[in-house]
Structures are given as C-alpha cells and as structure tokens.
UniProtKB/TrEMBL annotation, chains A, B:
Boundaries of every Cupin type-2 domain copy: 43-104
Gene3D superfamilies hit by this protein: Jelly Rolls
InterPro entries listed in its UniProt record: Cupin_2, HNL-like_cupin, RmlC-like_jellyroll, RmlC_Cupin_sf
Protein name in the entry: Cupin domain protein
One Pfam family, short name: Cupin_2
Length: 133, 133
C-alpha cells in the first residue's frame, strides 16, 4: 500500500520508467511536460528506504521543492542534507548527487528538471544505512 | 491579518516590489533565485479579490502550481479558468494573461518563471466582478 505524504497530491503511478535507477519503489506524477517549455515538472514520492542512484543533470539543472515527509539529498563529497516539507534544493549542471526518503518516512518532492540525466551507481546499503535518521 | 492557505508555506512578506502591478495585497516568498539557474521560483499568496495586472513573459514562460485556496487564470481572448489546489498552468512566451484570487478566497501558487515580464493594464473591477465564484 502506498501512503500519501505529499501535501498537494496523492501518489502518482508506480515509477516503472525509472525503476532501474532507483533502490526501492517510487511513484511519479507528471505535472508539466510541454514541448515548448525547456523544463519538466513532476512529483516523485519515495517509500521509506527508497532513493535514486547517483546521477548528474547535464546541460541543465534540477530544482526540488519538498512536498511531504522526510528525505535526504547528497552531493558527491559533501554530507547528506536532511529535507523537510518546504525545503528547496538546487542541483547545478554537472553535479553528481542522489535523493530519496529516510529509512522510516515516506518522502515527496516536486522536481523541476532541465537537461539530460546520466545515471550512475546505486547508493550502497552501507552508505545509506549509515545516515542518521 | 494574513491567512495561510498554502499547504506548504506561511505567507511571505508583503509583496511591495510588485505592488504597482497588482490590485489588492499579495505576499511573496522567494524560494529559488540563483544566478546559475535561468528560472526563478517563488510562492505568491493573494488576499481575496487580489489579482495581478495583465502581463506577458517575454523570451521565457511561467509555470504555476496551485498550493492553496481558489483563484483565477485568464489568457487574453479566452474565458477565465478556475484554479484549485494541485492545478498547474503553463503560460507560454508572449501570451497576455493575469492570475489572482477569487473574490471570497485566499489563493497561493508557486510560480516558476523565465524571461522578462511586461506589465500592462489592470484587470478592471467590472471584468473581475463578472467572474462567477
């Protein structure tokens, strides 16, 4: 069963398109996808423990607006940052990063994305489990 | 007194910078403003009856995500569209439009904006009051 934690939307459908780039189940609600607009907007909801793989946005950026629950954001070489409702994240062109839920909470964010993603290795269980909820 | 209707944020400070382009009081919370990112993100909260003037985004666009209350969006030559929590709006380059609260409700939306705005005439009381709440 999915649990709605977003303050704005019920969880979207199971995110099968990107499942290969995630550890655990996520749900994706497309919000804005328009050929005349160079950013796409969607809401991603992560079950507890779910996170995406390390990835990079090339020739673009990603902006996150947290809409529910508690999660993590980490850029390579920096400590993970705990995220709560209303927090925002700016990921600049070329920056290696990942994001996802905490071990014990669902997590939802709006993502505003430009450019082309490059997907890298998964966040290991050892690294993820070492984060302090 | 301001009334928080956004599901995500308390109202930001009184929107004095753009007050000359609004009828009524609005409140603006800056969320993302970064010289390396070609869109800005903020949440605007409108008191009941408040709306912005007709305007155009040149060499850009504006995306709205409704975060609370009830409002209106209208493009020149089309009927006004009633907006509720979770609704999204895409305003393309060069399109003349306005947005704001209904007469009886506070209204909040996130705005994702690129390009340069051109501000035009106010939405007249006659036209605004003719809208059916």
């Amino acid at each position: 069963m999915t649990e709605q934690i977003s303050k704005l939307y019920p969880n979207g459908p199971l995110n099968t398109a990107y499942a290969q780039f995630f550890t655990g189940n996520s749900y994706l609600r497309n919000l804005i996808s328009d050929p005349d607009i160079n950013v796409g907007v969607g809401e991603v909801s992560f079950e507890p423990g779910c996170r995406n793989h390390w990835h990079i946005h090339h020739d673009g950026f990603q902006l996150l607006i947290v809409t529910g629950g508690e999660g993590w954001y980490q850029e390579a070489g920096f400590p993970a940052r705990k995220l709560h409702v209303g927090d925002t994240v700016v990921t600049k062109d070329g920056v290696k990063h990942w994001h996802g839920a905490t071990k014990d909470s669902w997590f939802s964010h709006i993502a505003i994305t430009a450019g082309t993603p490059e997907w890298l290795v998964a966040v290991s269980d050892a690294d993820y489990n070492a984060l302090e909820d």
